[in-house]
Every structure is written in structure tokens, then in C-alpha cells.
Amino acid sequence: MSSFMARLQSGKGYLFSAIIVAGLQTLILGTIIQSRASILSEGAEVLLKTAPVDPRDFLRGDYVVLNYDISSVPVQTVSGGIPAEAGERVLWVRLKKQEDGFWTVTESSFHELPPQPESVILRSQPFYSGGLAAGDSMRVEYGIERYYVPEGEGKPIEEARNDGNVAIAVRISPDGSAQIRSLLVDGKPVYDEPLY
């Protein structure tokens, strides 16, 4: 009888542990999904002009590789100084809307920028910087350099992108995180991202 009770107790412990692990996994996944949905529903929207990508970077799988004009940040836009020592850093960029409707970098910093009217602050992904000269520009990514498309539909989008006819509407959260909201070809939305 005592061995039966011991097996019953160990089974309950295993079941309880499995329920806890499943609950934590669900909570983490839900947090990730809600974070993305929050940016898409409440973030500031900006329109970014795409730039051609080297043909060797053509569609890998079912996504389009995106390059932006704001991916090359001129060193002369940096306020607050450039770190002398090389290392991995995050760059904060201030975007302002231009007359053509697209947003561009007007200021950048290796320190968080304060908010200003009619501008949005975007945070880059960590990147390695070092040995920057006054005429240089920094190549940065923002986590929005891929756009997944339905199978087989990437090639025409990449051709339109290389012709300069693709733009991306992006939502940016107050902490500088970005999510792609929609892809536009010739100014017309082709794909819109659902919240969930």
C-alpha cells in the first residue's frame, strides 16, 4: 500500500510540474504576442522609403529583404559625441516627416534622445561601432529588415523594391521598438499586418 501511495504522490508532482511549465510557456508567448500587437495598435506610424539591395540578397525563403534610407546614418547627425572605444552599441535616431511623406533621420545619439514635437525616436539593434570619422556613416538595423510574404510572391515585390516602388509603413512604440504595419507598392497597400 505504501509503494502505491508513493507512486501516486510522484505522479501528482510530475503533473503539477508539467502544468507549471505549460503555464509559463503560455505566459511568455502571450507576452510576446501582446507586445507586438501593442506596438501595431498604439505606436506612432512612419512611412519609410526602401532602398535597393544587392542582388545577391534576393529572396531567401518566403521573405523579402528590406533596406531603408534610414539604415545608413551619417556620423554628422550624432549629438552627444561618438564613443572613442570600439564596442557593441545601440543608436537612437530621431525621425521627422519630409515633404514627400517619408520620414528621415535628423538626429542620432548613442544615448536616449528626448522626445520633441513632430518627431519619433527609433532605436537600432545592437551593432559594432568603432573608428568612425566625420564623413562616415553608420550601417544600422532596426529589426524590420525582413518582410514575410505568401509563398511565391516575393520575387515581384523584390523587383518593385529594386525599382524604388516599395515603401513600408512602420509603427514605433514609445520605447523606440518598431513593427512593420504594411507593405506598399506604388503607394498602395499590398499587405497589412494583423494585430494577432
Distinctive features:
196 residues, alpha+beta, 5-stranded antiparallel sheet, 3-stranded antiparallel sheet, 34% strand, GDYXXLXY
Q: How is the topology of this model organized?
A:
Layout: H1 2-42, E1 44-51, E2 63-65, E3 67-68, E4 72-74, E5 87-89, E6 92-97, E7 103-109, E8 119-123, E9 127-129, E10 137-139, E11 146-148, H2 154-162, E12 166-172, E13 178-185, E14 188-192
Antiparallel strand pairs: 1-3, 1-12, 2-11, 4-10, 5-9, 6-7, 6-8, 12-13, 13-14
Please give a structural write-up.
By secondary structure, this protein is of the alpha+beta class. 26% of the residues lie in helices and 34% in strands. It contains 2 helices and 14 strands, in the order H-E-E-E-E-E-E-E-E-E-E-E-H-E-E-E. A 5-stranded antiparallel β-sheet has the order 3-1-12-13-14. A 3-stranded antiparallel β-sheet has the order 7-6-8, with no helix packed on it. It has a two-stranded antiparallel ribbon with strand order 2-11. It is globular and about 65 Å long. The N and C termini lie far apart (52 Å). The model is unreliable at 54-59 (pLDDT under 50).
Summarize the structure.
Helices cover 26% and strands 34% of the residues. The protein has 196 residues and is α+β, with helices and mostly antiparallel strands.
